[in-house]
C-alpha cells in the first residue's frame, strides 16, 4: 500500500512539473512576443525620428538659403540708397528741388514723396533726414486748408509746429524739419522753393 501511495505522489509531482513547464513556456512566448512588438515599434519610431531629422535638416538649409538671399537683396537695396523701415523703403535725396520736381523724381524711382502715418514713422524720418529740411508728400494745393497726402488720403494725424500751417505767402506744400522741434516740426511752405526730399516705396 505504501508503494501505491508513493507512485501516486510521483504522478502528482510530474503533473505539477508539466504544468509549471507549460506555464513557463507560455510566459516565455508572451515575453518574446512583447519584446518583438517593442522592437518593431522601436524601429518604427527610429525611422520616423530619422525622417523628421532629415526634414528638419532640409528646412534649415532652405531657411539659410532664404536668409542668404534676403541678405544679398538687402545689401543690393541699401547700395542703391534705399533704407528699410516697417513695411516701406525710403530714399533721401542728395540735391535740392521744388516740391513738384521732387515728387517727379520719386515717381521715376517707382515711389512717391513720403507719407507719414504714425509717431514711429515721424521719429524715423527725423533720424533719416540727417538734420536737413525735406519735402514730404503733403499739400493743400487743390483746396486751401484741406491737406492731403500724395495718395489722395486726408491728413488725419499731423506733426505741425505750433502756429502752422499758416498759408503765409501762398504756402501749399508740406515741409519737414524747418523748425528745430524733433517731433512737431512740420510747416507749410511755397512749393516752388527748393529743398531735399524723401521718397517712400511700399513693399
TrEMBL record:
GO terms for molecular function: carbohydrate binding. This is C-type lectin domain-containing protein. The keyword Membrane applies. InterPro entries: C-type_lectin-like, C-type_lectin-like/link_sf, C-type_lectin/snaclec_domain, C-type_lectin_CS, CD209-like_CTLD, CTDL_fold. Residues 85-200 form the C-type lectin domain. It comes from Astyanax mexicanus. Keywords: Coiled coil, Disulfide bond, Lectin, Membrane, Transmembrane, Transmembrane helix. The chain crosses the membrane at residues 21-42. Residues 42-76 form a coiled coil. It holds the Pfam family Lectin_C.
Amino acid at each position: 500500500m505504501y508503494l501505491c501511495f508513493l507512485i501516486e505522489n510521483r504522478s502528482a509531482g510530474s503533473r505539477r512539473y508539466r504544468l509549471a513547464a507549460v506555464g513557463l513556456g507560455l510566459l516565455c512566448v508572451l515575453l518574446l512576443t512583447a519584446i518583438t512588438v517593442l522592437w518593431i515599434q522601436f524601429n518604427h519610431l527610429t525611422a520616423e525620428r530619422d525622417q523628421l531629422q532629415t526634414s528638419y535638416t532640409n528646412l534649415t538649409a532652405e531657411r539659410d538659403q532664404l536668409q542668404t538671399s534676403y541678405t544679398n537683396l538687402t545689401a543690393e537695396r541699401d547700395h542703391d540708397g534705399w533704407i528699410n523701415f516697417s513695411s516701406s523703403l525710403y530714399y533721401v535725396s542728395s540735391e535740392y528741388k521744388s516740391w513738384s520736381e521732387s515728387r517727379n523724381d520719386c515717381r521715376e524711382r517707382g515711389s512717391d514723396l513720403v507719407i507719414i502715418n504714425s509717431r514711429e514713422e515721424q521719429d524715423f524720418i527725423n533720424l533719416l533726414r540727417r538734420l536737413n529740411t525735406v519735402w514730404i508728400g503733403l499739400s493743400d494745393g487743390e483746396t486751401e486748408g484741406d491737406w492731403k497726402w500724395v495718395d489722395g488720403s486726408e491728413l488725419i494725424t499731423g506733426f505741425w509746429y505750433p502756429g502752422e500751417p499758416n498759408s503765409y505767402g501762398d504756402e501749399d506744400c508740406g515741409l519737414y524739419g524747418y523748425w528745430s522741434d524733433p517731433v512737431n516740426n512740420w510747416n507749410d511752405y511755397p512749393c516752388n522753393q527748393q529743398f531735399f526730399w524723401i521718397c517712400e516705396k511700399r513693399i
